Amino acid sequence: MKEIGAFEAKNKLAHLLDLAEKGEEIIITRHGKRVARLGPVRKPFDQEAAQRAAEDIIKLRRQLNIKVDQATIREWIEEGRH
Fold first, then answer.
1. Looking only at Cα atoms, what is the longest distance across the chain?
2. Do 51 and 34 sit in the same domain of this protein?
3. pLDDT tens-digit map of 29-60
4. Can you give the pTM of this predicted structure?
5. 55, 28, 54, 24: which is closest to 40 by C-alpha?
6. Structural domain of residue 34, as residue ranges?
7. Which residues of 32-66 are buried (b: 16+ CB within 10 A; e: fewer)?
8. Same structural domain for residues 33 and 51?
9. How big is the CA angle at 17 (ends 12 and 19), to the nearest 5 degrees?
10. CATH number for 24
11. What is the band of 15 on the pLDDT scale with cuts at 50, 70, 90?
């Protein structure tokens, strides 16, 4: 993570935006104090994609005749959050 002063950030904004677009985060300081973070935009949660994935899992489970209980589903959800 790169730190840059506000004055320099103002003068190099286009370059900093390029870095953020590539995934880098930049901390902007004023008088040595951290005041802002510039970074890539995170994609919002896609409800439709999640629904399709759940439906695909259900279809696969039925095809393989696998029994899945609520505890297993919770475990899979937790694994997906890491």
1. 63
2. no
3. 999 999 999 999 988 888 898 899 989 988 88
4. 0.52
5. 24
6. 2-38
7. eeeeeebeeeeeeeeeeeeeeeeeeeeeeeeeeee
8. no
9. 95
10. 3.40.1620.10
11. very high
CA-to-CA separations, 24 to 8, 33, 34, 36, 42, in angstroms, rounded: 17, 20, 17, 14, 12
Q: How far apart are CA 82 and CA 66, in angstroms?
A: 25
Q: List the alpha helices (DSSP H) in 1-82.
A: 6-11, 13-21, 47-64, 70-80
Q: How many domains does the chain have?
A: 2
Minimal CA–CA distance to 1: which of 22, 24, 33?
A: 24
Provide the pLDDT confidence category of residue 81 given band limits of 50, 70 and 90: confident
In a shared domain, residues 15 and 33: yes
